[in-house]
């Protein structure tokens, strides 16, 4: 499927759309605001993550509420320059196959990462395109672990926290496939002793950097590494999507 944003200009750093401009968007999270309205966090091409007021959309009969679903490619515009602008227009931009089953929870996990880590109203067009492609790939049933790890790495790169998986942090020595390593957010990789609790194999680091995780062991090690790295920036508050998936998996 052609990405919904393929025909749109990539915004420059610091540019936000004028009120009324249409921009591709995805809903990240929505919650009631008062009795009648919704407050919706969106990832948009032109303005990055932005929060919009959707008046009257709390009603189950609201057409807008039906459109404002996660993972649906949308076109939106808004008006007002106050703290929370008002959604002015929304339409579904193209047909889509939403993620299902475990892939659905993975999509919610990506949404929560974006809400927690991306600052408001700052265009991140490359990340928007990556998110769009990842959601489409989750809907198509592609390998979930590879998709999540690739997006996590790009998210960190966008935030300015890029992770060098191919060199030791202090010495600059190339990672060796047969060696073992540990990772510290402030220091990067360093070779680890055999008894180190969180060590990760060099061949896993190389495979992760190349987007080519091959087996269950590599996928497990890569997942644990990325969880520790992201946890450093997320802080102590746990991810609700991760807790929900764990709870349902136990049932």
TrEMBL record:
Keywords: DNA damage, DNA recombination, DNA repair
The keyword RNA-binding belongs to this UniProt entry's keyword annotation: no
Domain DNA replication/recombination mediator RecO N-terminal: 23-91
Domain of life: Bacteria
Cellular component terms (Gene Ontology): bacterial nucleoid
Any Pfam family the entry gives: RecO_N
GO BP: DNA recombination; double-strand break repair
InterPro entries xrefs: ARFGAP/RecO, DNA_rep/recomb_RecO_N, NA-bd_OB-fold, RecO, RecO_C
Record-annotated membrane-spanning stretches: none
Family, per entry: Belongs to the RecO family.
Function statement: Involved in DNA repair and RecF pathway recombination.
NCBIfam families associated with the record: reco
Protein name listed in UniProt: DNA repair protein RecO
Species assigned in the record: Thiolapillus brandeum
Gene: recO
């Amino acid at each position: 499927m052609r990405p919904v944003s393929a025909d749109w200009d990539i915004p420059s750093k610091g540019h936000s759309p004028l009120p009324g401009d249409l921009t591709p968007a995805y809903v990240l999270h929505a919650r009631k605001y008062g009795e009648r309205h919704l407050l919706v966090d969106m990832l948009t091409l032109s303005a990055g993550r932005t929060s919009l007021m959707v008046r009257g959309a709390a009603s189950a009969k609201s057409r807008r509420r039906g459109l404002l679903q996660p993972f649906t490619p949308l076109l939106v515009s808004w008006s007002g320059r106050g703290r929370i602008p008002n959604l002015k227009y929304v339409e579904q931009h193209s047909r889509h196959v939403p993620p299902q089953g475990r892939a659905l929870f993975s999509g919610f996990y990506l949404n929560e990462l974006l809400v927690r880590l991306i600052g408001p109203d700052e265009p991140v067009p490359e990340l928007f395109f990556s998110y769009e492609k990842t959601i489409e790939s989750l809907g198509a049933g592609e390998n979930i672990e590879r998709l999540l790890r690739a997006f996590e790495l790009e998210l960190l790169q966008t935030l300015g926290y890029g992770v060098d998986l191919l060199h030791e942090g202090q010495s600059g020595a190339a990672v060796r496939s047969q060696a073992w390593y540990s990772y510290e957010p402030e220091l990067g990789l360093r070779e680890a002793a055999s008894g180190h609790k969180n060590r990760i194999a060099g061949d896993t680091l190389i495979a992760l950097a190349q987007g080519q995780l091959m087996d269950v062991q590599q996928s497990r090690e890569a997942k644990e590494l990325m969880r520790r790295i992201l946890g450093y920036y997320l802080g102590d508050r746990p991810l609700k999507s991760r807790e929900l998936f764990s709870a349902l998996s136990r049932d």
